[in-house]
């Protein structure tokens, strides 16, 4: 059972998912650790925890598309590197 969040709903929270689609995507799996649904694993005891910053995913996708290295798109974000979302080399 999913508990109500602080606004007495179950319709929103902080954690979520992102889908990356395409022929060069190394698909068929989920990337990143599962945060868990036990009260002690939830953020503030009610919300699914954020594990992967969305900027990490977008920086990898943009880097793949443009060939740029690192993270020129999000100033101030300490990019930890890609998650390995794409199979093989560019091409």
What does this structure look like?
This protein is mostly loops. Helix content is 14%, strand content 0%. The protein contains one helix and no strands. The protein is elongated and about 45 Å long. The protein starts with 53 loop residues before the first helix and ends in a 25-residue tail after the last helix. The mean pLDDT is 84.
- What is the C-alpha radius of gyration, as a whole number of Å? 16 Å
Q: What's the number of extended β-strand segments?
A: 0
Q: What structural class do you assign from the helix and strand content?
A: little secondary structure
Tell the overall outline. Answer: elongated
Report the sheet with the most strands, covering strand number, pairing sense and barrel closure: none
- Helix and strand element order: H
Strand content: under 5%
Count of helical regions: 1
Task: Name the helicity range.
Answer: 10-25%
Distance between the termini: 46 Å
Mean pLDDT: 84
Which blocks of ≥5 consecutive residues have pLDDT under 50? none
């Amino acid at each position: 059972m999913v508990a109500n969040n602080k606004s007495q709903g179950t319709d929103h929270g902080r954690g979520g998912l992102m889908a990356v689609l395409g022929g060069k995507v190394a698909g068929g799996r989920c990337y990143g650790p599962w945060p868990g649904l036990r009260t002690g694993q939830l953020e503030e005891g009610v919300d699914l925890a954020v594990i992967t910053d969305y900027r990490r995913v977008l920086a990898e996708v943009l880097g793949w598309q443009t060939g740029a290295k690192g993270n020129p798109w999000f100033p101030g974000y300490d990019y930890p590197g890609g998650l390995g979302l794409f199979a093989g080399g560019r091409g």
